[in-house]
Design a protein that fits this description.
Blueprint (H helix, E strand, L loop, with lengths): L6 H14 L11 H13 L5 H15 L6 H15 L8 H17 L3 H10 L4 H12 L2 H13 L2
Length: 156
């Protein structure tokens, strides 16, 4: 049986991300329907491929952008939390986490912000099936494949 990450857990993760970052803004869930959309998307796709489901949490939260702040950080922690809930052990370190963060930032800069535009273009899709296909497209991009590789290296 797969143990999914629930809406309340995602909201709590975002709250903790903002507190750890000492961000002054109030925690604001701007689009609660998008959190539910991501949860449904993850639960209905990818059969028993838990790495793919973890990646879907990560990319889905980034693309739907349900929170005012902290979506990228929240997305990665949700992916890791999902794997932990499903009995994966973490082999990551602070140094590996920093390397992943640097890789993500460098990729976005090198990609001349077209990756960010791609994230937001999927955000604006109204049709749920097209939106799911857009998320899967990003999961299969250099960005998604890099996150997938990192998860597989650091969670077993």
């Amino acid at each position: 049986m797969v143990n999914y990450v629930f809406e309340e857990e995602i909201e709590l993760i975002n709250e903790l991300v903002l507190k750890i970052s000492n961000e002054e803004d109030e925690i604001e869930l701007r689009r609660p329907d998008d959190v539910r959309f991501v949860i449904d998307f993850v639960s209905e796709r990818f059969e028993s491929d838990l790495y793919r489901k973890a990646l879907a949490y990560c990319v889905g939260i980034i693309v739907t952008h349900p929170f005012k702040n902290g979506n990228h950080r929240t997305s990665m922690i949700c992916a890791e939390h999902f794997l932990s809930k499903n009995n994966f052990s973490s082999f990551t370190t602070d140094e590996k986490d920093k390397e992943l963060y640097k890789w993500r930032v460098d990729l976005e800069k090198r990609d001349d912000e077209s990756l960010i535009r791609r994230f937001f273009s999927v955000t604006n899709i109204v049709n749920d099936e097209e939106r799911k296909n857009g998320i899967e497209s990003i999961m299969d991009s250099e960005y998604g494949l890099g996150i997938d590789k990192w998860l597989k290296q650091n969670y077993r």
